[in-house]
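Hi C.,

You asked whether I'd gotten around to modeling the 515-residue construct. I have! Everything is below, sequence then structure, no commentary in between.
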Amino acid sequence: MGLSFTEAKNFTGFVSDESNGGSTPDGALLFEVSSQSPTKGSYSTPIEKLRGGFRYLSIFTLTNSTKFEVTMESVEVNLSFQPSWPNLRAYGGYFHSSDNLLNRIWYASVYTLQSNNIPPTTGRAWPAPDNSWSNDANLGPGPSVLVDGAKRDRAVWAGDLGISIPSSLVGLGDLESSKNSLNILYINQNSNTGELPEVGPPISFFGSDTYHMATMIATHDYFLFSNDTEYLESIWSNYIHAMNFMISKVDSTGLLNVTGTSGWGRSASAAGYSTIGNMLMYGTLKTGASLAIWMNEPKLAKTWEHMAVKLKTTINSPSYNWDSDAGAFKNSNSDQSIFPADGNSMALSFDGANASHLTKVSDHLSSNWGPIGAMVPEMPGTISPYVESYEIKGHLKIRQTKRALDLIRLSWGWYLNNPMGTESSTIEGYNEDGSFLYTANEGYDKGGSYPSHSHGWSTGPVDALVNYVVGLEPKSPGGATWTLASQRGTMFAVGFEQKYFRGWDQTEGETFQCL
């Protein structure tokens, strides 16, 4: 008997889709059934062979006999995700509107995040096994850890947390898994330089300035929702060390000179005065200043605020990254060949673009849209819901509500309604022709089955719909104050569960005090 597992329907068959990251296929789980009739038995998948993410299970027989019959009495699946939750339906927040597609997208995104919260002893083994797959790696401390994907890589990739942590905090209310993932990165920080890992154990890669900063911004997001002062105090020296690591790369122009060029897989280089690097740096300085205020370090906050102002002035100058004719930011001051979707989206979502540039950038981003999503010029032929997650938040940040909702329906709606996919989760990325052969994985892809179909970096609609469209957004740690400023780019009703916000007391205008 054989068992094979796939996330997408078009890869079902005698072998599982690819997950191990090595040079050999995952294959199938095979076990013997006695030819003596009648006989009964059972088979349980070994723990290290758990399949973190699959939608389809193929069961087949391999035999030379012409008279061999197997009758299956039952098949059971034990869920290993969200291990610390006794009730897997106890989401911390909820979204409901009269637009059923948006509702489905929101819940598919939250379910994706739930499948990405795993026991830390079930990470993907690295280096890759010689054959099959193994999910018995130890990622770090804690009962549950937020990783990048259910199938792969089952590791804490720092850049992914920039999207997955705020979405998880809004949708699941899962503070524990988010903190554990951040903690893994801080535990493995380079004590000499202050550099944070691009990905935690067992992969343990370094060399990404953008992912380093994503961890720092996600730290702010976690504290904003949790008010976990004890944790922030415990890692504050690490955080300052991480900030100084980045500040050391800021020169007299006020811009960040990116030297750690690894990142989300874009083919265009992020080196030098790149827009993606500097918009992330602007977001890091601004959120860092907020953390410094909350840590009662006003001088530090003022220093970082001053640096942010100088960076924003320079990056918006036509002498550096702004292109007035295109109405968008260049890849870098030295690379004028493309106008990247990631950097321009972050210019809106992190407020790094001048007010006079906002509408132009939004217009330019929408010019990248095709029939099934927004293509990214920095990786031609690819549609990346990771980048799109920043884009929809950017459009919403400047109240281009209809544009953001159109993109959510276009891209996330296309995948959710695709009968070849999971129809219940969010995909890592796909090609503009609709194939699952994601260009970012081109160098090590095995026929298109390697991409993850349950990937946390693609869950931007969760907090985008709640924080911006509903307009319910925390403004001080632990939800002490919130703003309520709904956006109405199209006609639909929205709702939120009052118990999630622990009671209300209206103070002034659109500001509410949480009791």
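If it helps when you're writing up: The two ends are 58 Å apart (CA to CA).

Thanks,
B.
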